[in-house]
Amino acid sequence: MSRLGNLGARLYRGEVGYDFVAKRRIWYGVSILITITAIVGLAVRGLNMGIEFKGGAVFTTPKVEVSVSQAQEIAEEASGHQAIVQELGTGGMRIQVSELDTAQADQVQTELAEELGVERDSVNAELVGPSWGEQIANKAWTGLGVFMILVVIYLAIAFEWRMAVAALIALIHDITITVGVYALVGFEVTPGTVIGLLTILGYSLYDTVVVFDSLKESSKDITKQTRWTYGEIANRSINSTLVRSINTTVVALLPVAGLLFIGGGVLGAGMLNDISLSLFVGLAAGAYSSIFIATPLVADLKEREPQIKALRKRVLAKRAAAAAKGEPRPGDQSPDADGELLDPAPAAAVVGPRGRGRGRPTGRR
Fold first, then answer.
1. Residue 358: what pLDDT?
2. Neighbouring residues of 56: CB distance < 8 A, sequence distance ≥ 6
3. Alpha carbon of 183 to those of 35, 134, 178: distances in Å?
4. In this structure, is the dihedral angle defined by the CA atoms of residues 298, 304, 310 and 312, taken in order, positive or negative?
5. Residue 85 in contact with residue 67, Cβ under 8 Å?
6. Can you tell me the distance from the alpha carbon of 152 to that of 171, in angstroms, rounded to the nearest whole number?
7. Do 315 and 228 form a contact (C-beta atoms < 8 A)?
8. CB neighbours of 342 closer than 8 A, spacing ≥ 6?
9. Considering the entire predicted model, what is its pTM?
């Protein structure tokens, strides 16, 4: 077995781990700082809305012998408006000019062909009305709202309302960070961006639900034992699924990174930039929120219940009594200075009807 596979097995059994839940205030602070930065960037710089949302014309040229800056200067002089120019992998240019009607677009097309030294018919012109972009935006908001409502309802039924609230907060966290990065970077917001934003919600929710399912299974009949608190069991659930979350996120990020840095950066494909940036940032934010935000939030909300508070008191009292007698304290999950858990007991034997034996799934004593 590889070292990573061995580590994953030890994490799953609870032999090693990192105390994510105990350090949740640090993760909350990091998330708040990143979110504030994203909101400030969005408020100060705003989003660079694409031609599909503002209306205007898009001109695509064949291979030309001019630079991007020269093509931008030519387009702005011909139209009288600010132009956005992207170099295509074929050597041509994609020129976007907002606020143009049909007559103006025909005139700009003619002048571009003359200045760039190509045939007029080889310059493809597409006119986009702002109403079309407004319809896309409205449908995207509607889809997002319906998705959020359905997610909350499903998680509340399948798990409990605290997990539904935590998942909703994590999703809002991911969307805010992704939109803020778009504002700070200045990438153009197009329908491809909207598609990417809606796609990352599923990835983020997937990792979160995996941890929640493990937590639900591990916390059955939790009040019938006095070995672990709810927060410790939640932390074990994170660790037992940690390698799986990392693997799925890395595997998903690699092709997206190829689209972003090679397809968008090297080949200059504008649509690839729009989709891949939202996917790349959203996937990374989703993996972070699933591990560092969603489950610690559930633990915070759950430990406010009277019976869970009483369980915590019983667990701590039992450990204090064992310490006073000089006995080992089974179930003590206090992390050391490096955050590594000290208790090597398997997480699968925490609570629940796992077997007839004392904490052993096989029933052997």
1. 41
2. 81, 96, 97, 98, 99, 100, 127, 128
3. 13, 19, 9
4. positive
5. no
6. 11
7. yes
8. 332, 333, 334, 335, 336
9. 0.73
- Report the CATH number of the 3-49+132-306 domain: 1.20.1640.10
Tell me what pLDDT residue 337 has.
37
**Residues whose CB is less than 8 angstroms from the CB of residue 213 and which lie 6 or more positions away in sequence, other chains included:** 159
Rounded Cα distance, 331 and 352, in Å: 15
Q: Strand, helix or coil at 221?
A: coil
- Looking up tokens 């907002």 gives 98
* pLDDT tens-digit series, residues 271-324: 667 788 888 888 888 889 988 999 999 999 999 999 999 998 998 888 888 888
Q: What is the CATH number of domain 56-128?
A: 3.30.70.3400
Give, for 153, the enclosing helix (H) or strand (E).
helix 130-158
- Spatial CB neighbours of 277, under 8 Å, sequence gap ≥ 6: 181, 182, 185, 187, 193, 196, 260, 264
The H-or-E segment that residue 96 falls in is strand 93-98
SS3 76: helix
Segments making up each domain of the chain, as ranges? 3-49+132-306, 56-128
Same fold, 3-49+132-306 and 56-128: no
Q: What single letter denotes the amino acid at residue 89? A: G
Interval 158-177 mean pLDDT: 92
d(CA 203, CA 318): 41
Band the pLDDT of 340: cuts 50, 70, 90.
very low
Residue with tokens 């503002």: 54
211-247 pLDDT per residue, tens: 899 898 888 888 888 888 999 999 988 888 888 888 8
Largest separation between any pair of C-alpha atoms in the chain: 93
Per-residue pLDDT of 11-47, as tens digits, reads: 656 566 788 998 999 999 999 999 999 999 889 988 8
- The encoded tokens of residue 349 equal 């034997």
| Whole-angstrom distance, CA of residue 60 vs CA of residue 122 | 8
Q: Which residue has the higher pLDDT, 189 or 2?
A: 189
